[in-house]
Target: Vacuolar protein sorting-associated protein 26C
Amino acid sequence: MSVEIKLSRSNRIYRPNEPLEGTIVTKSPSSFSHSAIRLTVNGSVTLQIRGGSAGVIESVYGVLKPISIVNKSVEVKSSGRIGSGTTEIPFSVILKNPGDGNLESFYETFHGADISIQYLVTVEILRGYLHKSLSATVEFIIETAKANLPDQEISPEMVLFYITQDTQRHPLLPELKSGGFRVTGKICTQCSLSDPISGELTVEASAVPILSIDIHLLRVESTLLGERIITETSLIQTTQAILIADGDVCRQMTLPIYVIVPRLLTCPTIYAGPFSIEFKVSIVITFASELSKLHPKSDPRTPRQWLAMESVPLELVRMKYFSNSVNIRLLDNVPDSNLHLDTFRHASSPPTNFHMSDDIGLD
Model:
C-alpha cells in the first residue's frame, strides 16, 4: 500500500499566480477506507548559522525560526473508500489568491549552504486511530510570475578586469613577483537566469607558465542575527579548467567565458530584511610550480602563492526582455591608461542568445 504525488508539469516549475495541479496516486492490493484526504502546501525560508564568520555564541543558535511564505491546507476528499489497484485522484490548489496583495513575498526556490527557500506539497490519507496514515511529499519549484516582471528591456552589464602581480593582495611566488604577468578581459556582472554568464579573457604576458584558468561561481549568504549580520561565502559550482584553459595559454589569444547558471543552486539576487542572497564570479589563474603540484585541490577561495585571482559581484535577475546592447564599465582596480572601453566594445563575445528551456528536467 503506497501513495505518491505526480505534478502536472515534469519540470515542477510553477508561478505564484498559477494553480498547483497534479494527481494523488494510490496503490493497494485491496480496498481500504479513510476519514479524509488532505493536501498541504508549505513554503518557507530556512536560515541556519554555522561556523566560519559566526562566533561561538552565534553558532549556538543553529537553525533560526523559519520565515513562512505560504501554508495552505485543503481537503481533497472527505471520508470514503479507495478501491484496490491503482487509483488517481486529481487536485488543484491556488498558491496565491488575487486578493492577497503583496503581503507574502514568493521568493524563488533556492538551495544554499545556510539559506534554503523551499516549497513542498504533502498529501496525507487519514485512516483512523487503528491504522497508520499514508503520506507523501514532493518539492515544486517557484519562479517569479511573468506578469510581475518589468516590461522594459534591461541591458546586461559587463565589467573589464585586469589581473597583474600588482593587483594581488596576497603573497606571490618570487618568480611571479619578479617576472610579472598580465591578464585582461571582461565578464558579466548582471545576467539573466535563463542566459549563460559570458565574457572573455586574454593572457597578454606571463613569465611563468600557466597551469589552468578556472571560473568559480560563489554564493554570498547573509543572515541577520540580533544586531549582527552573519555572512558566509561558499562555492556553488566549478567550471573545470578545460572549459576555460587547461595548460599554458597562448599569449594574446582571446579565450571565451561561458558558464551555465545551475538551477536550484541560484536565484534572483535577494535583499530581504532578515537575509540576503548575493553572488560572485571568481577568476582563478593557477601558475605551474612545485607548490601547485603538491596542492592540486586547494580551496579556490583561499589565496595561495601560486594563484592569481579576481572576484567580481554578480547580480542575477529574471527578466522578460534582455537588450542586445551591453553596458561595460571598468573594475575598480583597472587603470584607465591600461584598458580602453572601445577595444572591448568591438571584441568578439560568446553567443548570448542561448536560453535554457523550461522543459529541461531536474534530473
In short: The radius of gyration is 25 Å. The longest helix spans residues 56-61. Confidence is low (pLDDT under 50) at residues 337-363. The CA atoms of residues 215 and 283 lie 5 Å apart.
